[in-house]
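subagent[fold] <- orchestrator: predict structure for attached chain, return tokens only, no commentary.
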Amino acid sequence: MPYRTQSSDTSREVEERQTAFFRKLGQNGRLKYGSQVVDEGFDALWANLCRDFPLLSPEELRLEWVRRHYGEELATRYNEFIQWKHQTANSKNP
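subagent[fold] -> orchestrator:
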């Protein structure tokens, strides 16, 4: 059976270089690199959200984030929590 790369658009040579690169990083290096990629992804998603809704407050943006990524049900529950949190804070500081 011939060798198949994991991605149809990646050559075997490139895949072998990528594998060697990640092996040289070691486990901690791979975890750090992966974490960086995830952080950059979240930063890009947040930037898109801010671009799409420039007039929303940070709290409203977080609610929209939850709605987009986790659905309406969780967004409703999150909004209820935010309202409860505000009411609790306001009752402590009349």
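orchestrator: received. Logging for downstream: The mean pLDDT is 91. Residues 22 and 37 are 14 Å apart (CA to CA).
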